[in-house]
Amino acid sequence: MRPVIGIFGLVLAAILLVAVLSKVHPYNGGPPMADQELAKAEEDKKAAAKPPTPASPAAVADGAKAFDAVKDGAIKATLVVDGRGTVVMEFYPKAAPKTVAHFTYLIKSHFYDGTKFHRVEPGFVVQGGDPKSKDMDAAQFTAAQIGTHGSGTSVPLEAKLPHLKGSIGLARSQSEDSGDSQFYFNLNTNTPLDGKYCVFGKIISGDDVPEKIQIGDKIASFSLR
């Protein structure tokens, strides 16, 4: 009888363990992932920890051609970061129509004015766009879970353009179609992110500014030209 009771106890313990684990949702701060940062995926987290692998000249050239192919109808925008400088960029509705429409709507609504950059990975990405970061010190970001908030409206994944240095991507959570307000600048050519996140624009002036950005730096203004 005791062996039967023992087996029953083990089965019951296993069931309880599975139930507990099913409630666990790990929070990884890896590469750009809106909500929980652009790289929640373990592979992206590992990529962020490694020195960037230089892209081959051929890959960069092919990437440049991909941007040239969608240049028609490009929309220009200007981002001013307090104490760092001005970034002029282009968005490409031909490559990511729904993403660009959503992002430009937020810009026109002054959604980004006053928000702060909450993620800085030297040599990898710089990320901002969490509305809860306004009027908050960088020291409060972790407790307030900055990096997990957005506008409340998501767009489907439109991953067509490559992650060249200076390109702009839309952060998302683990769900592919969860991109919203958070965006990131690629500080290097991040080929491992291709096909996983939407690149919808690139910097055309002020490409040195993202390199200077620190956690807590404020967006003074973000406007369409």
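^ that was protein a. below is b, sequence first then the tokens
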Amino acid sequence: MKEFIKKLYGWSLFRFALVGAANTLVGAGVMFALYNLAHCSYWLSSAANYVVGSVLSYFLNKYFTFKSKGKSPHEVLLFALNIAVCYLAAYGAAKPMMLRLLADASPNLRDNVAMLVGMVLFTLLNYIGQKLLVFRNKEN
């Protein structure tokens, strides 16, 4: 377990955080604007966040964060699969969790908090997936 945790730390985590900050600003802006201003659904709003952010994220994380030299359709497929699995896991867990924890709150408040919790869960899962699966190299 110690070896696994050691693999997760390093400069790639710092660079991932920088890329994530940029993605968060763009993606969260899209998500909350769609949900609160355009009155789109929870799932459409949160999914749009990751469609918009994923394109930017792929290139920044590939070249800046993990310095991956690989050029294969397999890597793109793994990236897309990682995003999809992390999205479904994070937002799928966040919504029912907030339904229970915030049972007396308005649906609007519950969904907004669930989207924030989903963002945090997604970020953690996504980093692990990108580092250990998508952009892994001999050091990882």
